[in-house]
Amino acid sequence: MSVDYAVITGRQQRVWSLGDYGKVGSLLSWLGESLVRRLDVHAGEAVLDVAAGNSNASLPAARRFADVLATDYVPALLDEARARADADGVRLRTQVADAQALPFDDGTFDVVMSTIGAMFAPDQEALAREMSRVCRSGGRIGMANWTPDSMVGDMFRAVGAHVPPPQGVLPASMWATGERVHELFGPYCKISTSRETCPFRFPSPQACLDYFRTWYGPTVAAFRGLDDDGQASLADGLLEVFTRHGSSADGTMAADVSYLEVIAYRS
Ligand SMILES: C[S@@+](CC[C@H](N)C(=O)[O-])C[C@H]1O[C@@H](n2cnc3c(N)ncnc32)[C@H](O)[C@@H]1O
Fold first, then answer.
1. Is residue 219 part of a domain?
2. Which of 35, 79, 170, 228 would you label with 45, given CA atoms 20 to 30 Å apart?
3. What is the pLDDT of residues 66-80, one digit of tens each?
4. For residue 94, what are the β-bridge partners?
């Protein structure tokens, strides 16, 4: 089956432009802090953040005085990234770019990284090739990718029950299975992976649902495309996921959401 990646990418770009992903990204700073620490980013290193959103991984690298370039295909998120960097008083450059066709020369960066961003690119081979290509020999590539059995994996399945994912494209969460990661980065890199968790804390499962329904592009798009009954059913499905993963004795929501941290050493 032939897959038109350009059409799918265009559609996804419009979806990520809905709501305001930055409101979600700002709650998940753990992912960037952890990945940048694991990558051991040093001052002065050239760092590329791919599908950077509002700079979750870029900021911790910029705080280490690295020379960081944040890229994403949603310009408004890069505006937010610059505003956050200004607020923190750190230097951050931004550039609009599709993760599957990075507009940089071979070997430009010491470190190429992405937290829960690049994993969504539909052409997984092109993404692995591009992230590897722009990383210098001896450099490091890092990714944080939601696992298929995580709360976010269940969230995507709940959405997928109402809005079928594009045909012929492997699920993004394949990027969190060791086998697929080795298949994709294996030709370019030596790989190490570890399973981690990211804290999601909300006042309640319902508050988490309201938050994602308002701000998270993929959920905003899914609700918009459904009639009243479909919306009610999707809301029930998502609430079930957030309640199952996040119930806590004090009634608030507390989920530790699993993801795979990937460090790939460029040959
Ligand atoms: C869940 S957000 C993660 C953003 C950020 N890395 C973080 O950790 O908060 C996914 C991001 O990937 C971006 N994205 C998805 N596919 C992309 C692609 N093919 N090229 C560039 N950006 C992409 C979206 O615009 C969005 O900002």
1. no
2. 79
3. 999 999 999 999 999
4. 70
